[in-house]
Specification:
The protein contains 14 helices and twelve strands. It has helices spanning 3-19, 50-63, 82-89, 103-106, 114-126, 135-146, 177-183, 204-210, 215-224, 242-245, 259-263, 265-277, 279-282, 287-298; strands at residues 39-44, 72-76, 96-100, 159-163, 167-169, 188-190, 193-194, 249-250, 256-258, 304-306, 312-314, 317-319. The strands form three sheets. A seven-stranded mixed β-sheet has the order 3-2-1-4-9-6-10. The radius of gyration is 24 Å and the shape is globular.
């Protein structure tokens, strides 16, 4: 056979190689940018969290983002190591940004009395409270309560999906939660709701009450016990979710939300009042109850969404969709799901 005849067979060879490849990556269906929301994944991480961050992003890419290509923002209070940056960027085709948290957004503010704060930490540690002695945990709670949405890397986005190291997504997510929230007028979404350790927030609710005028207590009584009458401060949303938050808090290591809500004066004033009291350091206020209370106060309950169809696990706490379909390929059991509303 002449060399020219070999060239004639080349198109057939290439066709066979495409149809019967030795190895080929799974096809990726990219959503055009015009169809995506102005949104990002957000994660707070340390260099020592590399393995856990890898595990999370691999899960997110496998279950959702390889089809949607939303960007990632990772923040740290110190610079990320080159190995960390290179490893994370190798996991996704999406844009990944790495940012450093300003010291005044991370460290305890100047009005905190460290002697008093240290005594409080010792007292909580003696009581066996988790993270009782950790200042960095308190820094994280304060930062996620009042500052992450102000970081320069986040300002160009409206929506975020919070990630944590070492989490698991149990099911395929074949829809866009950001677009769902935009199209259905939702502001805040979650998968798991639970109780907060009362020893970590003994003065949080009294401090919240102090944010408003004296009619706030009447508002709470009205929402929980309608027979008490009806007096509402202007900032409290009609049809709010205070009845739910009175005994549940959203476990916000998974949350999807509209940052315009956190950036509004109503929330910023609310956070500033809480921050000035020092409760993040004199007690151990978490960002979960702070976000939950704010959403319950300032949003109509119809603006808060429970994503039953997103299977999620962090540590031993897990949510499994109540009616999974075969296409979701879930690896969890609904009977063992913690994410049940009460």
């Amino acid at each position: 056979m002449t060399l020219a005849r070999y060239y004639l067979l080349l198109p057939l060879f290439l066709l066979c190689l495409y149809l019967f490849p030795f190895s080929r990556r799974a096809a990726v269906v990219n959503v055009p940018l015009v169809q995506r929301a102005n949104a990002t994944f957000y994660m707070l991480a340390r260099n020592s969290d590399l393995d856990g961050v890898v595990a999370t992003i691999e899960q997110v890419e496998k279950r959702f983002n390889r089809n949607f290509n939303y960007p990632y923002v990772l923040l740290n209070d110190v610079p990320f190591a080159d190995k960390f940056v290179d490893t994370i960027r190798s996991l996704t085709h999406s844009e990944v940004e790495f940012g450093i948290i300003p010291a005044d957004h991370w460290n305890p503010p100047g009005w905190i009395n460290e002697t008093e704060a240290a005594a409080s930490r010792r007292k909580l540690a003696d009581a066996g409270v988790k993270y009782a002695g950790s200042i960095s945990y308190r820094n994280m709670c304060r930062f996620n309560s009042g500052f992450f949405f102000q970081h320069p890397t986040m300002l160009k986005y409206r929506w975020y999906w919070r990630l944590e190291p070492d989490v698991r997504y149990h099911c395929n997510i074949d829809f866009d939660p950001f677009r769902y929230m935009e199209e259905h007028n939702k502001t805040y979404a979650f998968t798991i709701a639970t109780y907060e350790d009362p020893s970590t927030i003994p003065t949080l609710w009294p401090t919240v009450r102090g944010t408003f005028d004296t009619s706030f207590l009447a508002c709470v009584l009205t929402c929980l016990f309608p027979e008490f009458g009806r007096i509402h401060p202007a900032t409290i949303a009609q049809g709010n979710a205070l009845r739910f938050i009175s005994h549940n808090y959203v476990w916000n290591n998974f949350e999807i939300a509209d940052m315009d809500f956190w950036r509004a004066d109503t929330y910023k004033d609310f956070f500033s009042h809480l921050d000035q009291t020092g409760g993040f350091y004199y007690e151990r206020w978490g960002d979960a109850p702070v976000h939950s209370i704010a959403a319950a106060l300032f949003l109509n309950k119809n603006q808060i969404h429970f994503f039953d169809e997103i299977g999620y696990q962090h540590d031993d706490w897990s949510h499994c969709p109540s009616n999974p379909t075969p296409q979701m390929e879930c690896d969890c059991d609904p009977a063992n799901s913690f994410g049940v509303l009460t």
